[in-house]
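>> received
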Amino acid sequence: MAWIQLRIQTTEQAAEQVSDMLVGWGAQAVTFIDSKDTPIYEPLPGEVLYWQDTTVIGLYDAEHPMQPVLDKLQQTSLFKQGLSYKLEQLEDKDWEREWMDNFHPMQFGKRLWVCPSWRDIPEPDAVNVLLDPGLAFGTGTHATTALCMQWLDQHIQADQTVVDFGCGSGILAIAALKLGAQRVVGIDIDPQAIQASMANAERNQVVDRLELYLPKDQPELAADVVVANILAGPLVELSSIIAGYVKPGGALVMSGILPSQADAVMAAYQHQFDFDAVAEQDEWIRLSARKH
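>> returned
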């Protein structure tokens, strides 16, 4: 199917208004991207953040009459205040197939592999996590996930209880189970992540040992290992909750942190934890620590 897209350069304050207009004018999807490559970090539950300079992209069927849309846009007060736009063709591809074709099996540490569910397993005797990320984050391709997978490969032991805080696709939770953990609890604010984690757990035949919760339903427990691959802001803001899951002597593993943010994250936990050496990959770091 052929598509066209209407790209509108706007501001953080006007982004949601522009999105609503595009939807009202027939856009089949709307996407927000950063106009100036400014980092934005994971919001707290219920919080929505945009970039100061935001590009809002409306996706339209190529046969959709666009001149009426442009006419309406040019009549808005935002356009009169300097809002700019560009209408362009979008290359017609099977985007899902292209993504699938470029997602390959990956090895983490000595024994752990992540294998797309649609590809052959390269080492059948290894610890293989079969993954279909679907709508949730976490394929192993991002450095933050890779750093956590490497730690799990080296440290998970039999009979341990693990909490995956911000479980996304369930990749870390399932890896912990297949490496020998007895029980894993996954927590995420996104119901789609819970669905994706459950589907991936079923695919890996570990669903009987994985418990999944939204924050409002999260249980009280003390775990041997807590892994939190989110971002620095929430790691600091939610430090009391995350630290509370770690039993005395237990391990805490955190990623989604830039080197410049390490001190702030460590400061939020150091009164309860002794930290290991920092691990870094592709400009991201992993912090690991042991609870007093």
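>> Residues 37-51 have pLDDT under 50 and may be disordered.
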